[in-house]
Amino acid sequence: MAQGTDTSYTGRESRRDRRFQVSHQALIAQPGFSDLACEIRDFCLGGLFLKFANPQTALASLTQRTDADVEILFSPATSESRQTFRIPAKLRRLSPLGVGVAFVRPPTEALRALQKLRLAGQRQAVAAQPDAAGTPYLRAATGTLLSDTLHLVHDELMRLLGDRLEQAAANASSIAERQGLFDAVQEFRRSGHEIHTRFVQQVTDALSGTRSVQTQATASAASGSLSLVDEDDFEDWLATSTEVNRLEEQFRAELFMIESRIGELFNFACDDSNNPAGPAVISHAYRIALQELPLAAPARQVAYTLLREVLSAQLELLYAELLALLPVSEAEEEPQTGIFPVMPPPPAPPQAAPDVPPAADAAPAPGTAERPEPALQQGALSRLTTSLLDFFRNQPAPMSPPHSTAGPAQGLPPGPAAAPAAGAPGMPATPA
Q1: Is 35 helix (H, G, I), strand (E, B) or coil?
Q2: What is the pTM (predicted TM-score) of this model?
């Protein structure tokens, strides 16, 4: 199973970023030289390590090209369109087996393609095990997919956060706010490793059941009795929850299936508030990891917004692999009882009745039984269903026609507006 590594191939940048193993064919291209076949063996946000297909030929060609600008070409096998990525890079560290390259600029789409390949490789490695469908294998694979995704999320977040904070500082409305954002840049650099460790550990503890992540407001916040410190914490929680809601709306269908599958696999009632792979647990774990740092509220908001943007892309890959890995749950097999019940199509709008002149006398002939309208023959269940559909369409439920003391008998369509003549059948005469 593919794991993250700490092997250093590209100098200072590779020591800062965690490396992830992958295996995919690629080419090293440079104008004026023949393309060299190689294999991408691991990647990080700063670069790649490429293993030579023919070491002797590659070494003879690259020995005099240290720090040269090259392009790394690869086409993901899982890509439906067979897109070819061309990554600008610099040759860095040459070894007998391969070469490390550093990205000229972070190739976001190419890295996501490599991440997708890596996650698919992990799932396939689990499926190849003799007891792949067994609970221990599935639990371990779920933990590995989640943990590696969190490592990559944090690395990408830290790489982008400094620039994002400086942009916010340039648009700050006061000197104090601007200084707080600039101070946060240094604080994140100093505390990056500590944040990383606490962030990942909290989520993995939630998955194993060792310790839960506080995703709900505290009792004091809910009751309205907030101290000054509690009020700051509540505002922090609220800012995080706002970003969580946007992610949950984006992945609502996937989360319904993943929560039921993880709940059955790990034997607990899994929902939005405690799903270890869900936006709430991941985002609030990051919030708690920042809690002890001297960061101004605007800087925290920048971090939470950026985290949501990074998770929006990475969770899509993670959820696709979890849904392919984990067996279908019982809740998914009963759609009518889930949160996505199969609703009947809305009824067709009523057709306009033709203009027919009303009868001269709407009252029934004496001795004739009244015939109720078809709409009034609906059973209780049918009326309830119609009312619910009208409610979800934000339309008022159909109302029965009002009854007038001088109108027709109940159950009959309204007659002419003129009052019946005295002595008409079925009506008492008006006294003089």
Answers
A1: coil
A2: 0.64
